[in-house]
Amino acid sequence: MVPQQRAARLGKLHGALLVVASLIDKPTNLGLCRTCEIFGASALVLDNLRHVSDKHFQSLSVSSELWLPLLEVKPAELADFLQMKKSEGYCIVGVEQTANSQSLQDYQFPEKTLLLLNEREGIPANLLQMLDVCVEIPQQGIIRSLNVHVSAALLIWEYT
Questions:
Q1: What is the mean pLDDT of residues 115-133?
Q2: DSSP at 97
Q3: How far apart are the first and last CA of the chain?
Q4: Among 134, 107, 132, CA closest to 118
Q5: CB within 8 Å of 150: residues ≥ 6 apart
Q6: How far apart are CA 46 and CA 98, in angstroms?
Q7: 67-121: per-residue pLDDT in tens?
Q8: In what order do the strands lie in the sheet containing 102-103?
Q9: pLDDT at 130
């Protein structure tokens, strides 16, 4: 692909959904790059851009990383990044089951939404307190946790 084509494609009108995956380190879960590109997210934030060269990432992303702006924000820099995005008018949304979570089926996403994702133990307490809202995906089974890529896909689709 010639650089002009890529630059033109990256300049397309994106939505204002910013997907932050800095707390995800499994390349297989970072395949959500493809979902972000397909549904027009403005960018995907990773903890390290080296993930793009991983074979598992590449097999799942099927070149979507060429068409989607990628940013690097280390986990230690996330609090400052979230604060900066808040000051730019973003609503910080976490996917988390808390006492005050709103159901995904009832939640209306603001145009400028930052979606904070996390694997395993949930969003760290220092970042949880920075969220404007926690959104929960209604579930009926015994297992109370979806794979982060699945959760992300559901929220990105609902935003779209």
A1: 92
A2: -
A3: 28
A4: 134
A5: none
A6: 25
A7: 889 999 999 999 999 999 999 999 999 998 888 999 999 999 999 999 999 987 8
A8: 70-72, 43-46, 17-23, 113-118, 91-95, 133-136, 102-103
A9: 96
The residue ranges of every structural domain in the chain are: 3-159
Distance CA 156, CA 153 (A): 5
Phi-psi map region of 15: left, alpha, beta (phi>0 left; psi -120 to 50 alpha): beta
Provide the pairing of β-strand 102-103 with 133-136: parallel
Architecture of the domain made up of 3-159: 3-Layer(aba) Sandwich (3.40)
CB-side neighbour CA atoms (13 Å) of 39: 19
Asked whether 31 and 64 are in contact (CB, 8 A), the reply is: no
Q: In the block, which residue shows the tokens 């300049």?
A: 11
Strand locations in 25-97 (E): 43-46, 70-72, 91-95
User: 0.90 cut: is pTM over it?
Assistant: no
Residues 25-70 pLDDT 10s: 887 888 898 889 989 999 999 998 888 888 887 887 777 887 889 9
Tokens of 115: 């979606």
The rounded distance, in Å, linking the Cα atoms of 56 and 26 is: 9
Residues in the chain: 160
